[in-house]
Amino acid sequence: MTPASTTGADAGFWRQIAALVRDAVMMVRGSGLRMLWFIVLSQLIIVLIASPVLRWVFQQVLRSAGTTGLDLGTLRPDQLGIGTLVLLIVICVLALWAVSLQFSAIVLLLDDENHEPDSDGRLARRLATALARVWRKLLRPSSVPLIAYLFFFLPLSGFGFASLLTSKITIPFFISNELVKSGSGTMILVVLVGGILFVNARLALTMPIYALTGATGGQAVRASWRLTRRGPGVRLVLAVAVLMLGAALALTALTALALVPTMVSDHYWPDASTVVAAMSLGVAQVIGALLSGIVVACIAGVMIAALRRRDGEVAGIADPPQTGASIGTARRERRDGAGRRTAVFAAVALVGAVLLGLGNIRVVEHVASGGDVLVLSHRGFADGGVENTISGLEAADAVGVDLVEMDVMQTKDGGFVVMHDVELSRLAGEAMQVKDLTLDELTGITVRNHLGFEDRIPSLAEYVTRAAELDLPLLIEIKLSGAETDDHVDLLVAELERLDALEHHIYHSLDAPSVARLKQLRPDLTVGYTMAFAAEQAPQTPADFIVVEQWTATEQMQQSATQAGLGFMVWTVNDVPGIREHLRRGADGIISDRPDVIRAEQTSIVEQSGLTATLADALQRFVAFL
C-alpha cells in the first residue's frame, strides 16, 4: 500500500469514528427534553424506590443469617439457609430488572426518536409496549448471561452504560494497592484490567441488541461478540472514548465554575460562604447528574449507530437512522409547545438544586477540620524502607506519623516475626511460607521492595524494642500464618509483657476469634476488628474500634460505628481525594502507604481559610460518584 493510500485509509477510519459520534449526538438532540425527563425520573426511581427496596431485601437476608451487618470475616456458609439463598436470588433478579429496564428505555427512546415525529402520548405507549416486551424477556432463564455483563464486566471497566445501582462495583482498593507493590503484581493488574476492558468492548452492543430485537440474553451477548470483531470494535471503543473525554472536560469545567461564587464570597462576604457553597454544590449536583445522564445516552447512541451499520447481520434490527436533515425536520415539527416544556423542566431543575442546596448547608457546616485524625503508616513507610522492617519503621518515624501499623505472625517454632505475607516470594523471591520456618530462619532472610530498598525480616522483639527507642506507638495486627497454636494470642500477650511493651500499643486483627480472645485476656487493651468488606451496620464485636477497608468505609458505616460506641479507622487510603474525604469526615484514623501525603493534606485543611477548599473536596467526591 502506498503512503497516499494509507493516509486515505486512516482518514476514512477517523471519519467513521466521527460519524458514530455525530449520529449519537444527533439522536440525543433529537430526543430533547424527553431524554432529560427520563434521566431525571429514572434516577429518582432508583434513589427513592429501587435502592430502598433492594436494601430492604438485603436487610432481610442479613436477618435470616442472624446478623444486622455484613461481615465476610464471620459469615459462614452454613448460616445461609434456603430462605437466605432465595432472598439473594431475589436481590439479583430485582437489580437485573432495574438496570436492564433503565438501559433498555434509553436505547428505545433514542431509537424511537429517529422515526417519524409523533405525539407524546403515542410515544409513551410505544415505549411502554417495548419495555413490556423487554420485561417479559427478563423473566426467562435465558437472561442469566446479562448478569455477568451488567454486574461484572460493565461496572468494572467503566466502559459504556452507567447506573447508580452498579456504581459501587469495582476492584477493591486493598487488592489493587497490594498488587502494585511488586512488578509481577502490577503486571497481573494490568492484564486483569485490560482483559475486562477487552471483553466489555466486545460485549458493548449487548443491550441495544437485547432491547431492539427479539434476542435473548445469551443471543445478545453472542451477537455483540460477533459484531465487534476487529475494525468495528475498535471504532466503537474510540468513539466512546471521545465522548468520555468530552464528559471529563465538561465535568472539570463545571467544577471550576462552581467554585467561583464561593471564592468571591470568601473574599468579600465570608459570613455568607456557607450558604453560597451549599447552593453552588446543589446546582453542580443537578447539572452534573444531567450531564452524566446525557453522556450515557450519547454512548447508547454510539452503540445504536454502530449496530445499524451491521443491521443485516442481526435479525430484527430497526431501519437505518435518518439523515441529519430528517431528524432536524422532526425536531422542527415538534417545536410547538417546546418553550413551555423547557420552562417547566428548568423550574423543576431549579427547585431540585435549591432543595439539594438547603440539604447541603448542614453538610458544609459540619465538615471536620481533620486535625484530630490519627495518621497511621501502613507497615512502616515503603518510600524509605521495606515494609515491616526496621528501616521502614524508622522511615515512618521520620515522616512524623502518629502510629505505625504492622503485622505479626507466629513461626513454626512458636516465635513471633513481623511479616504480612504468609508466602515470601513477593519480598524475598523464594517460594517459602512463614509457617514452615523457624524464627531464626526467618530473621536471617533478606527482603526487598519494588523501590530497591532491602532489609532483614525482624523478630517482634527487635521491632517493638526499636519502636520504644523511637517513642513510636504501634498498631499491631495479629495475622494468621497457618503455624499458630491454639494459644497464639496468649503467647503473644506473654511475649509483649516480657518486653514491657503490651500496654504501649494498640491492636487489631481480621480474625474475630483473636480479637475476642485478646479482649478476654486483657479488657483494658485497645483492640480493633478489621473488616475487608462491610455493609449496612457496624458488626457486633467486643472490639473498641473497627478498621474498614476503603472500598466499604462509607459514611453510613462510620455513623453506625459511632452509634455503636466504636472508633472508626479506614485502610489503606492512598489517593488524595480519598485522604481528604476521610479527613473531612473526621475518621479516628487513616492507615496509608503515603503518610507524608496525609500529613500535607491535613495541614492544608487545618490552615485553610474560607470554604472554597471545602467545596472543592465536596465537588471532587460528587464527580467521583458520577
Notes on the protein architecture:
- There is one protein chain.
- The longest helix has 62 residues, at 3-64.
- Helix 10 runs parallel beside helix 22.
- The strands form 3 sheets. An 8-stranded parallel β-barrel has the order 2-3-7-8-9-11-12-13, surrounded by 6 helices. Strands 1-10 form a two-stranded antiparallel ribbon. Strands 5-6 form a two-stranded antiparallel ribbon.
- Mean pLDDT is 84; it is low at 1-6, 113-117 and 316-336.
- Helix 20 (576-585) links the parallel strand 12 (567-571) and strand 13.
- The chain is globular, with a radius of gyration of 28 Å.
- It is built from 22 helices and 13 strands.
- With 626 residues, the chain is of the alpha/beta class.
Which descriptors would you attach to this protein?
626 residues, alpha/beta, eight-stranded parallel barrel, two-stranded antiparallel ribbon, 22 helices
Count helical runs: 22
What is the radius of gyration computed over CA atoms, rounded to a whole number of angstroms? 28 Å
Main sheet record: 8 strands, parallel, barrel
Task: Tell me the helix content.
Answer: 55-70%
Separation, N- and C-terminal Cα atoms: 45 Å
Strand content: 5-15%
The order of strands across the largest sheet is 2-3-7-8-9-11-12-13
Characterize the overall form. Answer: globular
Mean pLDDT: 84
> Which regions contain 5 or more consecutive residues with pLDDT less than 50?
1-6, 113-117, 316-336
Helix/strand class: alpha/beta
Strand runs, count: 13
